[in-house]
Amino acid sequence: MLLYKLTDQIAKLTAERSTSSSDPIRSKKSVGELKDSEDIFAFLHKFETVTKSKNIPDYMWLDHLAPLLTEKFCEAYYNLFETNSTYSDKRVVLLDVGGY
After folding, report:
1. Contact criterion met (CB below 8 Å) for 80 and 93
2. Full-model pTM
3. Cα gap 93→40, rounded to integer Å
4. How many other CB atoms sit within 10 Å of the CB of residue 12?
5. How would you write the chain as a 3-class SS string?
6. Which of 42, 99, 46 is nearest to 76 (CA)?
7. pLDDT per residue as tens digits for the range 24-68
8. Which of 20, 40, 41, 98 has the fewest beta carbons closer than 10 A?
9. Residue 21 pLDDT more than 60?
10. Sign of dihedral through CA atoms 19, 74, 99, 35?
11. How distant is the alpha carbon of residue 18 from its chain centre?
12. Distance CA 25, CA 27 (A)
């Protein structure tokens, strides 16, 4: 009986995982993609709040941020493509491009 309950719980968890978004940051309920009309400062603040609330480690933030950016910000983001670039380095560049 216990084995049956465990198997049933594993099946339910697997089903939940397969129906959930593969990227919790990109989902519309979280951050979503940056819009051309959106303020970059507000967007980055929302991004940081969501990544912290989802316990995503700082070193993974860049992997989640890049696909959310518009073409204008992607160009600046990738121009600073250095192995030692941190999220803070890229944030400064993105804010500069956004006029801050």
Report:
1. yes
2. 0.68
3. 11
4. 10
5. CHHHHHHHHHHHHHHHHHHCCCCCCCCCCCCCCCCCCCCHHHHHHHHHHHHHHCCCCHHHHHHHHHHHCCHHHHHHHHHCCCCCCCHHHHHHHHHHHCCC
6. 99
7. 565 545 788 888 888 999 999 999 999 999 899 988 898 889 889
8. 20
9. no
10. negative
11. 19
12. 6
Place of tokens 């009309």: 37
Cα-Cα-Cα-Cα dihedral sign, residues 83, 74, 31, 37: positive
Q: How far apart are CA 4 and CA 49, in angstroms?
A: 40
| 9 pLDDT above the threshold of 70 | no
> What does the pLDDT read at residue 39?
93
What is the reported pLDDT for 83? 60
